[in-house]
Amino acid sequence: MIFLLFFAGVVLLLSGSLWAALRQGKAPPQTSHPPFHPIDQTLNRIDEAVVVSDAAWTLLDCNPAFTALFGYTNAELKGKTLFSLFAAEADLPEGRPDRNVPLTILRYRKRNGAVFPGETSFSYQQHADPRFNRIIALVRDGTERVEAEEKIKHLNESLERRIADRTAQLQAMNTDLQAEINDRKRIERHLAAEHAVTQILAKSRALTEVAPRILQILCENLEWDLGLFWITNDQVRVLTCIESWSRASINAIDAAPFESTNRESLFWPDEGLPGQVWTDGEPIWLPDIAEADNFTRKASAQRAGLRAALAFPIRGRTGVSGVIEFFSREVKRPNTERLQLLSNIGSQIGQFIDRKESERALWESETRKRAILAAAPDSMITIDHEGTVLEFNPAAERMFGYSKGSILGLNIADRIIPPHLRERHREAIARYLAAEEGSILNRRIETTAMRADGTEFPVELTIIRIPLDGPPLFQGFLRDLTERKEIEAKLHQRERRFRALIEQSSDAIALVTASGTTLYASPSTSRLLGYSIDEFITKKVFDLIHPEDQERTRLLFGRLIHEPGRRVTAEYRIRHKDGAWRWMEGIATNLIEDPGVGAVVVNYRDITDRKRTEEALAAEKEWLAVTLGSIGDGVMATDVAGSILFINKAAQALSGWGAEEAIGRPLQTVFRIVDERSRAKVENPVQEVLETGEVVALANHTLLIARDGKEHAIADSAAPIRDREGRIIGVVLVFRDVTEKERMEGEFLKTSTLEPLGILAGGVAHDFNNILTSILGNLSLSMLSIDSDTDLHRHLTQAEKASNRARDLAQQLLTFAKGGTPVKKTASVVDLLKESSNFAVRGSNVRCSFILDEAPWPVEIDEGQISQVIHNLILNAQQAMPEGGTIEIKAENRWVEEEESRTVPLKEGPYLRISIRDFGVGMPREHLMKIFDPYFTTKEKGTGLGLSTSYSIIKKHDGHIEVESELGSGSTFSIYLPARPGAAIQEMEKPTELSALKGEGRILVVDDEEGIRHVVGEMLRHLGYEVTATGEGADAIERYRHASEAGRPFDLMMIDLTIPGGMGGKEAAKRLREIDPQARIVAVSGYSSDPIQSELKDSGFSGFIPKPFSLNELGQMVKEVLAKQPE
Q1: pLDDT at 13 exceeding the cut of 50
Q2: pTM (2 d.p.)
Q3: Structural domains of the chain, count
């Protein structure tokens, strides 16, 4: 084994006289020991033996590996010469070694007398002063190498003897001899390869230089076709390929892709052949790649024509540092001898890598030291015990004006120490050498130094001792204090000025510690608080603060002391010496970490008078704010430029602008107003007020457009704001939302318009229903006596249908009447919507689309009236789309909040909202205000009753109807009906067959019209009842009494509620209840929606039937009333 450790850049240079002295066994003349730096810690950790000597070969120091190798202690070695460790004079090298001489093998003798060969390299370090030249030797035990050479020598000798002995047998043993020759040649190739690798490693400076040559040598001598050199990267734990080599005989086209792929590849531990060798630390031989299961590059290797593979580890000090991989185009069986050879070569390469790492570490250490000396901002000067300058760094050159070359070897006292301090310097060194004690060692002192031009300047000096075997060295560190002294002088002057400012300031200043102790108080403290400085400093700051302010100020102070540099401002009350509480405004800054302050600086002033003024203003402002915030009118104030200065809550709500957003903006941005009719922009009143100085009111029909686009009808006025001199300094604008007022006025106008029409319509409808009662009754009776398949029966059926349509018209008229109160029941609108809507559009080019909630809430409605409303609205939508189209009908659950009642006249609660939207021509804005007025229509043949009727019905259901429309975009009518979530729906009863309606009993019929009495009597008799008729209520009561007294009482009395000139139904029922509380009384009225329906029990009635009615309806009603138990 050959020692491969080199020092990069070391010049192997020894003087001829020294070598001659060494060979004669004599030491050169002794010199005083030069300055010596102990061996670097890096070299102490390496395994190779390192020794340092001076130019006379006297040993100065060595690392632990050297003492372990020779068996001496470090102390025993010091003072010896290197040649005293040689075994014999004959072993000394000839000539004078230089940088081109390879490693030298010298024979050494250990302390125990054992002699061993040592592979030795020398590094000669030259100093400017020849006395300080150094020789560094690296020694490695070369026993293994010598033994290997001896083994080779003996093996050659043995082979030669065997060849001589068997010369005579060459002919007979030709085959065996040829094998022997081949073995010898193989061994020779192995030895040649190992020797060549050793030589390359000995002469090369870097691994990148040796890698390609090693691959070539091993491939050519060991008969491999391609080699790869892998190196570990310990930082990321990966193998990278740094070099490859292949024989020229390999097809470049096939091998090149395989080589390039591997050059770009990475292998982790246990991955692929290189990764397995890295992990296991043992070589792996694959005779045939085709038979290997875990060879990951099999396909690419086979494409390159490669068969066998071999990989062996490169072993270093810390383990495997790389892997070398070989490939062959032939199948190769494992060879133990070859594996051992490669193992040895792997160890040699590993030692080479370790040596280069050691050399790099040593070079970096020296480089760092030189860089520190060169970059140090302070001067660094090394002297010996006589004061001779040994080291002078660049900072010292700049500070003193001497170049390093001009001052080295000179006495320091004569160059940089002023004359009046030189003797003191010499005495101090002498005292230290005599007693090894110094008063200034390892301390910072301030003194005076001298530059090359003779000028003196202040410096800060620190001296440390460098111990050696002989007299010590001294290292001095100097820092120029010239600039600092100038700054200190300026700071001292500034401090005097600052103190004068503080002492004369009207504000008080205090320095307070983190615990609240006062370190300093300025003279103004006495004026502000009445305490003398000494009294104030003895008190804790927080003891003087008002109890109500203590928690807040302690919290602020606690946060402040934990944030260096932070500044806080606080207002607090502090107790004056006279006992009064004074308001202070304090600014505290945390300068605890500032070495020049070391406290919290508090600057405070008396603001008691200001606080009293602020409190008075705040009270007045609060009173004004509460007043303006409490009124329902919106209030805005502006300056003379029209920018908003104030806006109260009512104004914020109407405009949609928050106070923070509105303040500072121009008034016209927040207060946008237009004319309701023309939509033209209305001029802002502020400018007019500023110009006239008078109060200005807005015209009627003004709309305020809120930020979200919502419109409010408003009434307002603007007035000037004047200062004490009467100058206008702003404008105040006061306005209120009159939308609800105008809506209520409109509602009242509609109601007042509908009321007289309702009275007229009610009278007409009542008389009309009386006539229809006679017609429908007679038609019903006539149809009973005629076969249903005759023409006459069909004519009568058509007449009955026409009468029913007439009844619907009468019902529509009655909606206007006072008696049009709906008879409500809990119902679902789903079927009602679909039936009424689809019926209305039947036969037209319009269809209905329904969008309904999954579970619409039940509503309290009169199904007939609501059906009429839906019918009217669908017809209206159909007429708006003459070209056809789709009507969109929605039903959705809606909870109306209290805030919405301002825009929708409804109480808070659940509602079902029905929306009917068409996509027709739409309506202009001016028509929307009149759309529900009676007789208002935009159609040539319209009556103007449909929408007004719908409006009246919805109002009587405690609901609301509204419309949105725009020309060209269609219209949407929305209906709100009170809902009852979770209520049970009352199902409609199915009509009963006429035969099932027949009964028996005595019935008294009361009506002022004889024709009605006759037809009703006939209808009842047809149903099996005995009938008595009269035209007046009082007479009916008498008849009822007589019948009861005669023992033939009436089972039921039917009486018209309205009997002109006589007792009507209500009065008669009341009188009859007095005679017979259990009497069954049915109210009959020409008002089909008579309010009496809602109060039957309270009015004394057992049932109700509206005119006109059919035979079935009459029979059903009588059957139900007679079936009830008398109350």
Answers
A1: no
A2: 0.32
A3: 7
